[in-house]
Amino acid sequence: MYGVSPDLLDLQKDVPNRAAFASAVLNPAVAGTAEQGPDQAIPAGFCLIVKANPANTGDVWVGESKAQAESHLFTLQPGPFVSLCVANATAIWIDVAVNAEGVEMIVEV
Question: How many domains does the chain divide into?
Fold first, then answer.
């Protein structure tokens, strides 16, 4: 189980739920070449959930730049997720160990 910061919980209790979700799949075509997340605005007080596809056979790397993702500093094995509080999903870059594997993303909009 992943922990959630008490500060984040305090912030979220004052933010009303949104009426809809936006979701996307990002599967970089070539392992070792990071791809940028889609152009999806994320409302203030909300976070983008990025989950490594459970069917992946290799790791996924997440970064805030192409170079950082390709440096393999933050690893997601198949299945786990990370919650990233960014203004737009374009702030996320994904690299993969296996061609065409990747992540699923979801956020309230």
Answer: 1
What pLDDT, on a 0 to 100 scale, did the predictor assign at position 11? 56
Expressed as residue numbers, the domain containing 72 is 23-108
First-to-last alpha carbon distance for the chain, in angstroms, is 25
Does residue 79 carry a pLDDT above 80? yes
- The three-state DSSP-derived secondary structure of 17-83 is CCCCEEEEEECCCCCCCCEECCCCECCCCCCEEEEECCCCCCCEEEECCHHHHHCCCCEECCCCEEE
Number of C-alpha atoms within 13 angstroms, CB side, residue 7?
1
Q: Who contacts 11 (Cβ-Cβ below 8 Å, separation ≥6)?
A: 45
Single-letter residue type at 109: V
Q: Which amino acid is at 38?
A: P
Partners of 87 in the β-ladder: none
Residue 11 lies in a domain: no
Q: Please compute the mean of the pLDDT values over residues 47-60 and round it to a whole number.
A: 98
- Side-chain half-sphere of 90: how many Cα atoms within 13 Å? 4
Write down the pTM of the prediction.
0.85
